[in-house]
Amino acid sequence: MLLVQQCARRAHRWPLRSGLTSISNTCFYSSSYYLTTPIFYPNSVPHIGHLYTLVITDILARHARISLPDRTVCFLTGTDEHGLKIQRAAEARNLEPLEFCNRISDRFRVLANNASASYTRFIRTSEKDHHHAVQHVWRALDSKGLIYKGSHKGWYSVADECFYTENQVERLSGKGNTLSSSSEEIVVSKETGSVVEWTEEDNYKFRLSRFRDFLFARYQSDPHTIYPPQQHAAVLDMLSMPLEDLSVSRPRSRLHWGISVPNDSAHTIYVWFDALINYLTGVGYPWDTEKQNVQACWPPDLQVVGKDIVRDASGSGHTTSQEALGSLHWTVNRRKMSKSIGNVVDPFYVIEELGTDVVRYYLARIGGRFKDDVDWSSEQLENHGAELRSLLGNFYLRITSAAIRKRLPEGFHSNLRESLEQSLSTEDVKEVEVANGLQTLASVVDNHLKELRISEALEAIMHQLKAINALLNATEPWAKNSREAVVMKMYALSLETLRICGILLQPFIPIKAGTLLDAMSVPQSERALQHAQYLCGTMGVTTPGVKLFSNTRVS
Ligand code: MSP
């Protein structure tokens, strides 16, 4: 909301788009980095789309931590609990809204934990401090004359929690539509297909129209405010036309489950107005000016929102951050996976079946491009699991196998690095490719992630793992007639690849990467991005036979 424009911005920020090519040269420093997910409606249990949003944000949060380990990273997620949608869902189950939300909000929290999402606060908009923050913002806007009493009529969608104009809806005849069992005509949103109901009511309005020029200029002046570019273009397109004032309350007689308008308990604050303020509440708003650093995390550096809400969010001035990422949609048979359609994939089940990291890997690799929607495929998920098992888990077992270790001379472990420095050939094309790749991999990955190219970052790491796997197959250091020098070189080069890839994989597959680095005795203090440089870290004693994946085999 616009209040955020009044808040002081921090002087030093991590330049997401700095174009740095060498991590060791990273001299920009900011004491905090703040990322947010959208907050989820707990009208029904989570699905893969929600897990995806959490995972994408978590990858960027974890990368921010390893990039500058001394910096505080604030990562906010949670549930958006008020509004008609929740009120009706609770009524349908004969539960008080809070009791209903307690149950389902907890499922979102458990999912975030099962997914290893490293959030620093899980906010619920039913919490007291949030009510306080929302009413504080309301009063601040009211005192500036930005809120007035008016009336509104239009088509309201409870599923989307927003009004649509006449042009944005269409009528479907009773026969032939799947949304109604009766033969009556129904009216639906053209964009989302959700049923709308005609509503006329007195309510409070926010003078959003006054801010169109400001918002347009802001988004136009910096193409990096919204990623990917097509989402940025959609927002500019919307802002190229006049904006209507926003209805920001509902009569209490229709909506009782929400935060009261200050000094007028006959009105409840509109759920989107309430929800967007969570980003402020989550980091301690209203600021206590007596306490130092209380604003340390404000404003957000990166906000992840689904592409369906990026326009609503930016239109109401929500994107105060340096950057907003409009993530794509997961579909099933090309239809958006959604609670209301009922075509959802259960994230708890897939995590239980394949493990957190395999699911994270699939979501990031396929969903981390942000170009087109992607269709969920269990088969593709399993193939991705198999790829990880083979290139990482099985590779670790192969290189630490007895067949190779028994060919290493006594005491070899103590000077792995030296032997690597001395033995690398400059003529073997494959060897040179692996070594060169390792020298630049950390900065390649870092640059991709700074530009939010999650899938590409992951691909660069997997490309490196493929190259070392291929080299291992070609050199066969386990073979009886292999020369000791080749065995030593392959062993050292493989471990160095695993060390660097292990560090870089932490944001994507934190559990497996942690197990790998532990198995290689990489000290906790040497797991930051700066240690992912070629020959820049300790090569410790490696424990053979550690299975990263339960059904990893030694070939
Ligand atoms: N409560 C609002 C957001 C308020 S943020 C101040 C909301 N909630 S939601 O539960 O409906 O959706 C939460 C997020 O999940 C949205 O960003 C939405 O785009 C995302 N997804 C919901 N379904 C999805 C897919 N099928 N695929 C990918 N993400 C999807 O909107």
UniProtKB/TrEMBL annotation:
It comes from the Eukaryota. InterPro entries: Met-tRNA_synth_2, Methionyl/Leucyl_tRNA_Synth, MetRS_core, Rossmann-like_a/b/a_fold, tRNAsynth_Ia_anticodon-bd. Keywords: Aminoacyl-tRNA synthetase, ATP-binding, Ligase, Nucleotide-binding, Protein biosynthesis. Signal peptide: none annotated. It catalyses: tRNA(Met) + L-methionine + ATP = L-methionyl-tRNA(Met) + AMP + diphosphate. GO terms for molecular function: ATP binding; methionine-tRNA ligase activity. GO terms for cellular component: mitochondrion. One of its GO terms (biological process) is methionyl-tRNA aminoacylation. This is Probable methionine--tRNA ligase, mitochondrial. It comes from Multifurca ochricompacta. The lineage of its organism: Eukaryota, Fungi, Dikarya, Basidiomycota, Agaricomycotina.
